[in-house]
Amino acid sequence: MLGRSLDPAGWVDVEALIQAAQAHGRRFTRDMLEEVVATSPKRRFEFSADGRRIRATYGHSIPVELGLEPVAPPARLFHGTVRPRLNAILRTGLLPQQRTHVHLSDDVATARRVGARHGRDVVVLAVDAARMAADGWRFYHPAPTIWLTERVPPDYLQLVDDDEQT
């Protein structure tokens, strides 16, 4: 991140971030940063209470202590992927890959949009989140449509049928 290091909770000083971006030839201002935070539909970033620091609220590829508390999920959550990955996922489950958590959506449409980032032949998997939670798995809800969990074993997955996918 432009030579800036994060503290253990994932925060970086806003002014230091802006200076580092400008030192790398990127036009970047506080106003631009505030616009990104305010308009991000997924609420991907947040400022500290004093406004001096910023961090990603989820999607980390390094261990970060966000201070999220586990919450009870809805009965079903969803994950979009592309068909070529389906057999591997049904065999191994959903793994965080280069992130610290698996990202799930609370509706089929959002899962489909997320899956479409990886290709055109999108399929959606339903996650039996209620059963996972009853079995002791933890879920976190850092943003309105985003749910996180450590991983999803294959026993909790089911392919959403075509009627439900549209």
TrEMBL record:
GO terms for molecular function: NAD+ poly-ADP-ribosyltransferase activity; tRNA 2'-phosphotransferase activity. GO terms for biological process: tRNA splicing, via endonucleolytic cleavage and ligation. Gene3D superfamilies: 3.20.170.30, RNA 2'-phosphotransferase, Tpt1/KptA family, N-terminal domain. Transmembrane segments: none annotated. Keywords: NAD, Transferase. It is an enzyme of class 2 (transferase). Belongs to the KptA/TPT1 family. PANTHER family: PUTATIVE PHOSPHOTRANSFERASE (PTHR12684), TRNA 2'-PHOSPHOTRANSFERASE 1 (PTHR12684:SF2). HAMAP family: KptA. Removes the 2'-phosphate from RNA via an intermediate in which the phosphate is ADP-ribosylated by NAD followed by a presumed transesterification to release the RNA and generate ADP-ribose 1''-2''-cyclic phosphate (APPR>P). May function as an ADP-ribosylase. This is Probable RNA 2'-phosphotransferase. The lineage of its organism: Bacteria, Bacillati, Chloroflexota, Ardenticatenia, Ardenticatenales. The gene is kptA.
